């Protein structure tokens, strides 16, 4: 089918969280309605949270509608061949005013068996971090189920986990099974498989407004955890006006573009591409139309778009399959 698909933007799906804050508005220009807004789902096909286009002739249609109308032009043949009509990724911005729970995600096999879902391999790009901000990622030393359960019962789990200081520009790649938590005072861009399956194992003993603790998933987590140490932090080079490889895994490929002036972006794959602007502003030119984006904006380039011109001064995550 011949189409004239164009760069697509979507209405953000905003999520209140017990640990959320207001930086999604003050830092990323989202129109939040609460001072505990923790997440902006930028592009999603999670059931009941399917993103809706907010401009152009497809305005008002959701991603699943568009895939049904233009499967190959939107997703790309390589994505269709692998995932069918399922959109395989979920894109978020996260504002952690308080520590998130300590948690992990199951792999594809467990997630399919238990939840009929994809697993949840993910990556974080740190957009902003307060002084002394830190993350929890994996164990300090190789552990085992028995040691883990003893520390969990004694409320000393944090003592065997790896806490890492973070700063703007840091990248972490989290394979399934990795225990992790985003610490207070951090804004993150998150790229992950399309999944909302989380096993929460410790929540800092906090309670909600009604005095209730959030549900923990102790039993489900036991055979999903990677008890060995993991090297989650990603080192990468950052050269201006070119795509710098950051993550290349089975589920997504992420590059960083430090845009200074003008570049021509040419597609090198038969798949959709997503651009997340994490700093600055830029103009994208396609088919004699100009599209302007700023810090906190996310745009999807359908597979049928082979190239665009970009100009401005910005840091942009470029993600595809």
UniProtKB/TrEMBL annotation:
This is Phosphohexomutase. Residues 11-117 form the Phosphomannose isomerase type I catalytic domain. Residues 246-317 form the Mannose-6-phosphate isomerase cupin domain. One of its GO terms (molecular function) is isomerase activity. Transmembrane segments: none annotated. SUPFAM superfamilies: RmlC-like cupins. Keywords: Isomerase, Metal-binding, Zinc. The keyword 4Fe-4S does not apply. InterPro entries: Carb_Metab_Reg_Kinase/Isom, Man6P_isomerase_Firm_short, MPI_cupin_dom, PMI_typeI_cat, RmlC-like_jellyroll, RmlC_Cupin_sf. It comes from the Bacteria. It comes from Flavobacterium sediminilitoris.
